[in-house]
Design brief:
The protein has 138 residues and is mainly β. The chain contains no helices and 14 strands. It has a six-stranded antiparallel sheet with strand order 5-6-7-14-9-12, with no helix packed on it. The radius of gyration is 23 Å and the shape is globular. The chain starts with 5 loop residues before the first strand and ends in a 7-residue tail after the last strand.
């Protein structure tokens, strides 16, 4: 079922002019919401490496939005380099970056040209965004 917001009218038209109404508001029109929603687990994952799954979420053309699930004991299959930077929120589980352990609610900011190779011991779900590099950026 799709959610549709309602617009309420608190005035009514009488003899060609608008008058105030103290009665219960009536529906004027139905509108399509200016947003969309998806269930993350319904998105087909991309296998990045052993135990590493990425789900690409809808978003603006110049921004990449994703959720990554990493199984216990897995490691990102390569050193991840960020031309435009990256922002990550640990949703659940625990992420290990170097020697630092980061639990749910932890926010990581990787500046442009940074690199890392994350891993979890117990599994982790991450939500992240990064700008898409323009074609002539390199």
């Amino acid at each position: 079922m799709e959610w549709v917001p309602l617009t309420w009218v608190s005035q009514r038209q009488e003899h060609g002019r608008m008058t105030r109404s103290d009665s219960f508001p009536r529906i004027q029109s139905l509108a399509v919401p200016p947003w969309s929603s998806v269930r993350i687990d319904d998105i087909e994952p991309v296998v990045v490496g052993p135990g590493c799954l990425r789900r690409d979420l809808p978003g603006p053309r110049d921004v990449r939005v994703w959720v990554v699930d990493m199984a216990p004991g897995s490691q990102w299959p390569w050193v991840d380099v960020h031309d435009t930077g990256e922002e990550v929120l640990v949703v659940s589980g625990e992420l290990i970056e170097g020697e630092q352990r980061l639990g749910p609610g932890s926010y990581l900011f990787f500046p442009p040209a940074s690199r890392h190779q994350p891993r979890p011991e117990t599994g982790v779900r991450l939500f992240g965004i990064n700008l898409v590099a323009s074609p002539g950026a390199r």
